[in-house]
Backbone:
């Protein structure tokens, strides 16, 4: 297994639109294992392939307290949603920045698992938020892009200062 490098905002590669996975292969499963290890090590509760510079429609999520309930979504599609809620979010590609985003309260998602088998999952609460956040990554959207230009430019200033200090 390997820990992959996570792209950091405002890296332009985070704006790439991911392509559908044509067939689930051993290479897909190796990538999924590496993404899971990267997510657990970070630590985080989700990771989209876009964040590790692989532009395929693959997401891993584990919102359990025991960190042993990994969910893998290949070619995910939201087929239904309901309600609205506003929750605090974080992002491994925007380290140290947290803020609210308004999203659907519940979603139904259809995807393939790591064996290439189709499944349908009803999610609400944190899992629903995380699925929507990760699916935005696959479309090249980062959560801070829901915020006003002013708030986002403050975030950029903070991140650039931090990135300079790390050099
Ligand atoms: O996409 C990502 O960068 C992962 C992100 C997922 C997410 C979190 C919260 C709301 C929406 C989406 C994270 O995992 S940020 C880190 C985080 O939330 C966390 C870290 C350690 C323990 C618990 C949570
Ligand atoms: Zn994120």
Residues:
């Amino acid at each position: 297994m390997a820990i992959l490098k996570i792209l950091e905002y405002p890296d332009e590669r985070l704006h790439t639109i991911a392509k559908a996975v044509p067939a689930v292969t051993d290479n897909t499963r190796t990538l999924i294992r590496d993404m899971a290890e990267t997510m657990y090590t970070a630590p985080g509760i989700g990771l989209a392939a876009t964040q590790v510079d692989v532009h395929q429609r693959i997401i891993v999520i584990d919102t359990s307290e025991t960190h042993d309930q990994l969910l893998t979504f290949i070619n995910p599609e939201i087929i239904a949603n309901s309600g609205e809620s506003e929750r605090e979010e974080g992002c491994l590609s925007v380290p140290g920045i947290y803020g609210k985003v308004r999203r659907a309260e519940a979603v139904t998602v259809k995807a393939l698992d790591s064996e290439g088998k189709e499944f349908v999952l009803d999610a609400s609460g944190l899992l629903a938020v995380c699925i929507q956040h990760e699916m935005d990554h696959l479309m090249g959207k980062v959560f801070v892009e829901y915020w006003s230009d002013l708030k986002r430019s403050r975030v950029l200033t903070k991140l650039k200062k931090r990135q300079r200090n790390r050099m």
